Amino acid sequence: MTWFSFHGGHSGSFCAHAKGTLEEVVETAIARGFTHYGLSEHVPRYREQDLFPGEEHLGTEGLIRAFEDYARAAFELQERYADRIELLVGFETEALPPDIWPERMRELRRSYPFDYFVGSMHDIDGRWVDFKPAMTDELKAEFGAEALHVTWFERLADMVRLLKPDVVGHIDLIRKFEPPDFAFSPAALRAAEGLLDAARAAGSALDVNCAPVRNGYGAPYPQLPLLEIACRMGIGVTLGDDSHGPDTVGVGLTASLEAIAKAGFRSVRRLSRGRGWEDIPLDQVRPG
Ligand SMILES: [Zn+2]
Ligand SMILES: [Zn+2]
């Protein structure tokens, strides 16, 4: 049996909105039966206005230092725990700062011998889409709901084309605050297909991310209609718990696995350091 997640491992050691230490996250992943666990701490933000709430005391310089400290600590843990769990060390991107983010993200990719990275976006024009319903509502009012969703998928598709991430993070994060029965419009779904095309061309796997299940925001990302399209298009999927501390390691991840099965997939992609991506049959994927 094998159990894995390639999006998560945020910790209070290096992320102001997470809890616990990175070592506690790793110990918990071992205790909860993970054989492979991806660490994908947030990248630094480079403009004061892009700090997450609660990071003001760190400032942009503090974030850059915290990311360097994260990378060193993560590689040290990878080696120290190698006989108990395979840790994959990576990071989670932003499409920030505007215009120059592709080069910034590539620089980060080169700055350490990272095993992989998660291509994620959490903003539109420097405004967070996943922080507060009122902020997302403002964006919806300005763009119109459908145009906002189309813009979201088009911009994420651009990121996938430019960065070719190993994993594409929570592709429909834009619907975080929508009701559980929310459905994207036909135009938004067409834009989502453009994103999925880009993911296929880049060889990226989709993060099937259980954070919404845990936090009361409905089905895992991506919601079932998107997963079904991905399955028909032959795009690979992987698991992501989006843990932000030891208490959330693996919590809700069986819902991701169930959604993958329901969408028609027969296997889940697992990344390992020696062998790269492998397709693991669904019946072999469960906590050890
Ligand atoms: Zn986070
Ligand atoms: Zn994220």
Structure characteristics:
288 residues; alpha/beta; TIM Barrel; 4-stranded parallel sheet; 3-stranded parallel sheet; 40% helix; globular; binds zinc ion
What does this structure look like?
It is a single chain. The protein has 288 residues and is of the alpha/beta class. The chain has one domain: TIM Barrel. The chain is built from nine helices and eleven strands. The strands form four sheets. A four-stranded parallel beta sheet has the order 4-7-8-9. Strand 7, helix 6 and strand 8 form a beta-alpha-beta unit. Helix 5 packs parallel to helix 6 and helix 6 crosses helix 8. The N and C termini lie close together (6 Å). The mean pLDDT is 97. The structure holds zinc ion (2 copies).
